[in-house]
Design brief:
The protein is α+β, with helices and mostly antiparallel strands. Among the domains are: 39-99, 3-Layer(aba) Sandwich (MutS, DNA mismatch repair protein, domain I), CATH 3.40.1170; 198-251, 5' to 3' exonuclease, C-terminal subdomain (DNA polymerase, domain 1, Orthogonal Bundle), CATH 1.10.150; 274-418, Dna Ligase, domain 1. The chain contains 16 helices and 13 strands. It has helices at residues 22-26, 38-44, 70-73, 83-89, 100-117, 137-140, 143-158, 170-180, 193-197, 210-218, 224-228, 232-239, 241-251, 291-312, 344-357, 391-408; strands at residues 30-35, 55-58, 65-68, 94-96, 121-125, 128-132, 162-167, 185-187, 277-288, 314-325, 330-341, 365-373, 376-377. The strands form three sheets. Strands 5-6-1-7-8 form a five-stranded mixed sheet. Helix 12 crosses helix 13 (241-251). The longest helix has 22 residues, at 291-312. It is globular. The chain binds a DNA duplex through helix 4, helix 10, helix 13, strand 9 and strand 11. This is DNA polymerase IV. Monomer. Belongs to the DNA polymerase type-Y family.
Length: 420
DNA sequence: TCTGGGGTCCTAGGACCC
DNA sequence: TCTGGGGTCCTAGGACCC
């Protein structure tokens, strides 16, 4: 039997049939399904030798923790923590490099499992999704029964566990799944929404990170209930119009956002809304002030981004670069071109101009990035046909590179300056 | 060996237009 | 004349999420 924790109120298990009446459940048709320690679970599912060992995924040189299993978490290891700190907290943890291909494969399979229940699946990332099961209940039973069915199926087919939050709205369902972790289900019926939400710390609300949490705490708004009973205008003066409105709605669990069927676009899964920007950035192994090294990195990143853009069939007008200095201060510079482009040389020319415009001399640089914004389907881009325009030559070169990359892999063709 | 990489959205100020 | 106001685009920075 799957373990169920000792969380009070709304937590339910299949052994607790009292809240499974039809009337109650039609009012809680939204499921938020979240894999438990997804990367770590996938990385260890065929490694019984690691079952009882703390495991960390990520944490390469200058890296952070992408995921940690629950044993590692007992030592205080958390996602996004620096690798250094994680190793200090848990020196005997096994560190595994991420394998995104496998994560993607498992994710696709899990999302397929969801779609066998309902077409209304909104993937938020590789490892979590909202499901609207309103139309599935006649066939599959109450939302709680559907949640347990999904958990059992994913466990049997993928060898990993997940947790499910069930509620009338997406925001409450998401908070409920967090409460359900690991390997559990929490149902929050409509008449228990405020008693569920109001004792939570404001930091639990979607959109409240470290900074906003600290600001709200300074104002004496510590619990969600405090936010709920603060006038909207006061809230908006503190955190801005949009976030103030959002927090006000979330604190009453009144968001009516509908689920839109879509797959995660991350990692090339495709589907859903088209991306609005595409970018790439990389932290150097060591900080550098060498212009040649930096420009070469900008070219490599540009080629990566424009290659992805051409694969996706999009072009963009705004080119932005990011520069992070040794002291971690980070600046961005952007420039909007007259015409949208997906041509490597055009984006690179803009990126180098932006970089040189900074007028840096000996600044130690930690990271550079390139991003193209304002993406449009290439079919909607009408280029000014200038007589004798050289860019056509570059576009031809890009297409040749793309063909070669498809046949021989990304190492086969690259700009001359990137060859060692 | 302090602090990744992929994104989205909001804010605010200035330019510019009507 | 002595000063409006709305809308859009562009840029830079910041917060947040996974």
């Amino acid at each position: 039997m799957r373990r169920l924790g000792e969380v009070p109120t709304a937590r339910q298990s299949t052994a607790d049939p009292d809240h499974r009446g039809f009337v109650l459940n039609t009012t809680t048709p939204i499921l938020h399904v979240d894999m438990d320690a997804f990367y770590a679970s996938v990385a260890t599912r065929e490694r019984p030798d690691l079952r009882d060992v703390p495991v960390i995924v990520g944490g390469a040189y200058r890296g952070v923790v992408l995921s940690a299993n629950y044993l590692a978490r007992q030592y205080g290891v958390r996602s996004a923590m620096t690798a250094t700190r994680a190793r200090r907290l848990c020196p005997h943890a096994v560190v595994i490099a991420p394998d995104y291909d496998t994560f993607g494969t498992v994710s696709t399979a899990v999302m397929e499992t969801f779609r066998r229940v309902t077409p209304l699946v909104e993937a938020l990332s590789l490892d979590e999704a909202f499901l609207d099961v309103r139309g599935s209940m006649r066939r599959l039973g109450s939302p709680l029964q559907i949640a347990e069915h999904l958990r059992a199926t994913i466990h049997d087919e993928q060898g990993i566990t997940c947790s499910v939050g069930v509620a009338a709205s997406v925001s409450v369902a998401k908070l409920a799944s967090k409460r359900a972790k690991p390997d559990g289900v929490v149902v929050v019926p409509p008449d228990e929404v405020t008693s569920f939400l109001h004792p939570l710390d404001v930091g639990e609300l979607y959109g409240v990170g470290e900074k906003t949490q600290a600001m709200l705490h300074r104002l004496g708004l510590v619990r969600v209930g405090d936010v709920a009973h603060t006038p909207l205008r006061t809230l908006q003066r503190a955190v801005g119009d949009a976030l103030g409105r959002q927090l006000h709605d979330l604190s009453w669990g009144t968001d009516r956002r509908e689920i839109v069927a879509r797959t995660a676009t991350a990692f090339g899964l495709g589907g859903g809304d088209p991306d609005k920007s595409m970018g790439a950035q990389e932290t150097f192994g060591r900080d550098t002030d060498d212009r040649a090294v930096i420009l070469r990195e900008l070219l490599r990143l540009t080629a990566k981004v424009t290659g992805r853009m051409r694969t996706a069939g999009v072009a963009g007008r705004t080119v932005a670069i990011t520069v992070r200095f040794a002291d971690f201060t980070t600046i961005t510079r952007s420039r909007t071109l007259p015409e949208a482009t997906d041509v490597t040389q055009e984006v690179y020319r803009a990126a180098t101009a932006l970089y040189d415009g900074l007028g840096l001399q000996r600044a130690r640089i930690r990271l550079v990035g390139v991003r193209v914004e304002g993406l449009l389907p290439r079919a909607r881009v009408h280029r000014q046909l200038v007589l004798g325009e050289r860019e056509h030559g570059w576009a031809e070169a890009d297409r040749a590179v793309d063909r070669a990359t498809r046949r021989f892999g990304s190492a086969a063709v690259r700009p001359a300056s990137l060859i060692d």
